[in-house]
Design a protein that fits this description.
- It is a single chain.
- The protein is of the alpha/beta class.
- The chain folds into 2 domains: 26-133, Nucleotidyltransferase, domain 5; 136-351, Nucleotidyltransferase, domain 5.
- Helix content is 39%, strand content 19%.
- The strands form 2 sheets. The chain has a 6-stranded mixed β-sheet, with helices on both faces.
- Strand 2 and strand 3 (51-61) form a beta hairpin.
- Helix 9 packs across helix 12.
- The protein is globular, with a radius of gyration of 23 Å.
Length: 370
């Protein structure tokens, strides 16, 4: 005997509609755009507690600095690629009705002879006003973006931002700051590396440097060296030579209480390789701590793979394989100078620093732990 059909069994299920989320108030939105030598990246976010919630984002490799090392100028094709990416950013800003924003350009535009012409072209074609920032501000913004990753046990901190065209290093002494206040003291550096007198315990910037060598510019300088291992060694030693004017380099540092925070595609890629990730996962990478030995093992693995193997390695990715060895050469030079068991990986950088600085200046971030 066939089972009876339940009454209404053939009917379509009634749709359950959840209310659409309320769009954020445009007055509460902040945008930060970072146009570097290799990439164009943007975040749109709203304040949330002592941090922020990302509403929209954009990231694309535009290779603005391609050929800059040779000619001293931005090429027409590079500028055209970049303007196309900036049009997408402009559409996102318009769609979200963003009113608070900082749109900055870094090393490629600092160095190019035709940078001002390019800035005018961007304004004409997209309506966006790009601001070329100086190395000190770029370094400062990278530092405050990493404040949430600073350990309360850290007394000496070095923040390293490996970019496409330059690398910023900042050495900070926070030994006189009470432990629980150390991340907040770093955040207050948004006002400057040498801020005016403050009632709060201050982080002391011992020294900082902007080396005009990043993953793209360092690679371009040694493109004519055919042997993979020889090219890597030359890049690493050449970068170290450019650190000689950095004051803490002259003094032997103890590992105890010392932390390096690395922010760049190089550092996050090395971390993803260490974890064996086939698909990148920011939640597993951001804040990860690695030892010098673990990083060295990953870099040796890259060298063993060779150019073809690195191109096929899913942990490195198509956008990164051509730049990973120059970035690794920079990272290895840093770890030769300052061996550490506490390198923290930061999947954050200039954009996050721009957002924190704007929100802090406007007083819309809550006090408290990050």
């Amino acid at each position: 005997m066939a089972p009876k059909r339940r009454r209404g069994a053939g009917a379509f299920p009634k749709a359950v509609e959840s209310p659409a989320p309320n769009p954020p108030n445009p007055d509460a939105l902040y945008a930060a755009l970072d146009l570097g030598t290799n990439s164009c990246r943007m975040l749109i976010a709203q304040p949330k507690g002592s941090g922020f919630h990302v509403v929209d984002s954009f990231s694309k490799s535009v290779q603005l600095g391609a050929g800059l090392e040779r000619t001293g100028r931005l090429s027409r094709s590079s500028m055209a690629r970049t303007v196309q990416a900036l049009r997408i950013c402009q559409q996102k800003l318009k769609r979200n009705k963003v009113r608070h924003m900082r749109l900055v350009a870094t090393e490629a535009c600092r160095r190019a002879r035709n940078a001002r012409d390019f800035i005018r072209q961007v304004k004409r074609d997209t309506g966006l006003t790009l601001e070329i920032i100086q190395p000190e501000e770029e370094a400062r913004l990278a530092v405050i973006s990493c404040a949430p990753l600073v350990s309360t046990r850290t007394e000496q901190l070095m923040v390293v931002d490996i970019g496409g065209g330059s690398t910023e290093l900042v050495w900070i002494d926070i030994s006189s700051v009470p432990r629980r206040d150390r991340p907040a003291a770093i955040m207050r550096l948004h006002a400057g590396f040498h801020p005016a007198e403050s009632p709060f315990p201050a982080a002391k910037v011992v020294d900082w440097i902007s080396v005009p060598l990043g993953v793209a510019t360092l690679r371009d300088q040694f493109n004519d060296v055919e042997d993979d291992a020889a090219r890597f060694a030359l890049m690493s030693w050449f970068f170290e030579e450019n650190l000689l004017d950095f004051a803490p380099y002259k003094d032997e540092q103890t590992r105890e209480g010392f932390q390096i925070v690395g922010t760049s595609g190089t550092v996050t890629t090395v971390a993803a390789s260490h974890l064996g990730l086939k698909r990148y996962d920011r939640t597993k990478v951001d804040g990860l701590r690695m030892t010098s030995d673990q990083i060295d093992k990953v870099i040796r693995g890259y060298l063993e793979l060779g150019p073809q193997g690195r191109r096929r390695d899913p942990r490195i990715g198509e956008d990164r394989h051509a730049l990973i060895m120059s970035g690794s050469a920079i990272l290895q030079a840093l770890l030769r100078c300052w061996p550490t068991d506490r390198l923290s990986v930061a999947d954050r950088g200039l954009r996050e620093g721009l957002l924190y600085a704007q929100m802090s200046a406007d007083g819309v971030l809550e006090d408290g732990p990050f």
